[in-house]
Amino acid sequence: MKVIVSLLLLAAFAPTLIPSQEQKRDGESQKDSAVPCPDTVAWAGKYVNYSYGFSVVIPKGLKGFWNSAVCVPGPDGCTCMSDHGRIIPLTAEPYEPDRHIEVYAGYAADLDEPTVKQEVDRRLKRIGKRSREGSLSVLKQSNITLAGLKSQRVVVRYYDNKLNQSMVEDFIEALRRGDVEYSLYLRTSDRAYEHDRKVFDSVIGTFTLRKLE
């Protein structure tokens, strides 16, 4: 099992050449050398991730941005790490980095047999590291189904040490085939949560699985 996990980790982080070809950006098609690297453009409408087999629709009026390591442009196209998903800012430019929706997928390669509970616990641990001691509270935790996958949705409130304000994170963790992790989450201020939750729910409702490459 450890050998398989190591191979999956190498595959997830191996550079991929993305040639100059037709690509959809903000609803328009651009071809050949005019197409910039995907980490420099904004996506609108339906976004399809072929690396990890899923798609979502970016809500009207919002844009999705590259959610992976930066690409390196070259004469034959762009060399990029694996495409893990998109970040959707929920404010007008200049975007507030702490108010956004993130859609992320990758291999849960650091665990031999990961479970949804383990992925949830790891995210809660990361949130706890940036919260004021004793301020983290779980508002809701429930088992749900995401595109046919058994998942968990968790809503937490905490006081962020860096931002000096109360924040809410609403997230879903799911696993496919036992090794492909899907994370959808909303990070926003306590006061904006009720508004932003509706946008997050609309993204969740469009999440669809596709054939894995």
Description:
The chain is an alpha+beta fold. It has one domain: Protein Transport Mog1p, Chain A (3-Layer(aba) Sandwich), CATH 3.40.1000.10. It has 3 helices and 16 strands. The two termini are 21 Å apart. Mean pLDDT is 84; it is low at 1-14 and 17-33.
Write the layout of secondary structure elements.
Elements: H1 2-13, E1 16-18, E2 23-25, E3 28-30, E4 42-43, E5 45-49, E6 54-58, E7 64-66, E8 72-74, E9 77-80, E10 85-89, E11 100-107, H2 116-129, E12 137-146, E13 149-160, E14 165-176, E15 180-189, H3 193-204, E16 208-209
Estimate the global geometry from the Cα principal axes: globular
What is the percent of helical residues?
10-25%
Distance between the termini: 21 Å
CATH fold-level topology: Protein Transport Mog1p, Chain A
Number of domains: 1
Q: Which key features would you list for this structure?
A:
disordered N terminus; 3 helices; Protein Transport Mog1p, Chain A; single chain; 16 strands; alpha+beta; eight-stranded antiparallel β-sheet; three-stranded antiparallel β-sheet; 213 residues; globular
Summarize this entry quickly.
With 213 residues, the chain is of the alpha+beta class. Helices cover 18% and strands 42% of the residues. The protein has one domain: Mog1/PsbP, alpha/beta/alpha sandwich (Protein Transport Mog1p, Chain A).
